[in-house]
Amino acid sequence: MKNYIQKQAISFSHAFRGLIYMIKDYNSLIHLPAAIIVVIFAFVVGVEREEWYWLIAAIAVVWIAETFNTAIEKLVDLACPKYHPLAGKVKDISAAAVLLASIFAVVIGLLVFLPYFSDWVYPL
């Protein structure tokens, strides 16, 4: 049992190391502040529980896509240190997944926040 717990602890330490790597990554300079702003704004306007679900899901999808994108890019760099058109396509497709996830997140954000914003602009 002790051996199992040690293996699990090591696995979690690797996962947390990867998470820290992701947070320090250049692209996180965009995603992390955006996620923080969304969460703060959601608290300020008082979004409903169901809207929180959508916002959290949208943030998670972007981070998951960015995580896979970073992993794929690092793997392609390792496998193909010199430029190759196919490697470039793989990286572009991987980045497109992040773009699609980000567009999805923006749409969700607009659907959630626009009614609150319109209440501020046009109070009843």
What does this structure look like?
The protein is built from four helices and no strands. Helix content is 88%, strand content 0%. The protein is mostly helical and 124 residues long. It has a single domain (27-121), classed as Helix Hairpins, CATH 1.10.287.
Short description:
Its cofactor is Mg(2+). The protein is mainly α.
Mean pLDDT across residues: 92
Tertiary shape: flat
Summing up helix and strand content along with how strands pair, one would put the structural category as: mainly alpha
SSE order, one letter for each helix or strand: HHHH
Give the beta-strand count. 0
User: CATH class, anyone?
Assistant: Mainly Alpha
Amino- and carboxy-terminal Cα gap? 63 Å
Q: What name does the CATH topology carry?
A: Helix Hairpins
Counting structural domains, the number is: 1
Number of discrete helical segments: 4
Strand content: under 5%
* Poorly predicted parts: none
Transmembrane segments: 26-46, 52-72, 93-117
Binding site for ATP: 73, 91-92
Keywords: ATP-binding, Cell membrane, Kinase, Lipid biosynthesis, Lipid metabolism, Magnesium, Membrane, Metal-binding, Nucleotide-binding, Phospholipid biosynthesis, Phospholipid metabolism, Transferase, Transmembrane, Transmembrane helix
Cofactor: Mg(2+)
